[in-house]
Amino acid sequence: MLTVTTVNVNGLRAAAKKGFVEWLAGTGADVVCLQEVRAEPGQLPEEVREPAGWHTVHAPAEAKGRAGVSVYTRRAPDRVQVGFGSSEFDGSGRYMEVDLPGVTVASLYLPSGEVGTERQDEKERFMGEFLPYLKELRERAAAGGREVLVCGDWNIAHREADLKNWKANRKNAGFLPEERAWLTRVLDAGEGGYVDVVRELTPDVDGPYSWWSYRGKAFDNDSGWRIDYQMATAGLAARAVKALVERAERYDLRWSDHAPVTVAYGAGRWASRARTMEG
């Protein structure tokens, strides 16, 4: 088994004080992908920067206090790559991949965007560069007999079932027609060639949501968005056996405005002992 978790921590130093450390100590995951770390490695407490039993790689953004991705693995990666060959985005703390036996796992923090602003232009430029890379990565992996798993906060709800109040958000970043069409291209077998693993395992449900605003009673009412994905190549997706959004039991127990999204994959060429998922 290979169990992978992805979560936007909304500031790792803050999350560490609210329960992330305890969550990490109790998780059965083999790989944990983090987004929006918002810290240099030297700013993180030791139990977060290099926790016992984990190998960690951190890719902070050049802009202090923004973005940042990390990957925690039970075994040492065979290769680490920060960025995807973009002169604009490789220093932005938005993408990192690691090689494990038979699989490349990536942590992605796609820009959130805001309609009518430079932030949306940035998001569109990122998407324009990233899709060709995803296709190249899949093809390169296939030539080597490997699979790919791109985890993270994609900041796009793909379908109406992926956010509670979809009608009110049709003109907002994260649910724009062009953003959704781009994500369709990522999932198109003839183009990106990736599979939305959680949706494949839960085809007929609303959600399961992974982000809820801190405003109002969004969390209590489960008025959320599903924007945290595990996108896998077809061979790996076919091995997915269980998905779980680790939603906190109560509002005051949240250590991020996102919840961890965990998927267990069946037997493959991964040098890790079998683990089980709870819940």
UniProtKB/TrEMBL annotation:
<dbReference type="InterPro" id="IPR036691">
    <property type="entry name" value="Endo/exonu/phosph_ase_sf"/>
</dbReference>
<dbReference type="InterPro" id="IPR005135">
    <property type="entry name" value="Endo/exonuclease/phosphatase"/>
</dbReference>
<dbReference type="GO" id="GO:0008311">
    <property type="term" value="F:double-stranded DNA 3'-5' DNA exonuclease activity"/>
</dbReference>
<dbReference type="InterPro" id="IPR004808">
    <property type="entry name" value="AP_endonuc_1"/>
</dbReference>
<dbReference type="Pfam" id="PF03372">
    <property type="entry name" value="Exo_endo_phos"/>
</dbReference>
<feature type="domain" description="Endonuclease/exonuclease/phosphatase">
    <location>
        <begin position="6"/>
        <end position="258"/>
    </location>
</feature>
<keyword id="KW-0460">Magnesium</keyword>
<protein>
    <submittedName>
        <fullName>Exodeoxyribonuclease III</fullName>
        <ecNumber>3.1.11.2</ecNumber>
    </submittedName>
</protein>
<comment type="similarity">
    <text>Belongs to the DNA repair enzymes AP/ExoA family.</text>
</comment>
<dbReference type="InterPro" id="IPR037493">
    <property type="entry name" value="ExoIII-like"/>
</dbReference>
<keyword id="KW-0378">Hydrolase</keyword>
<keyword id="KW-0479">Metal-binding</keyword>
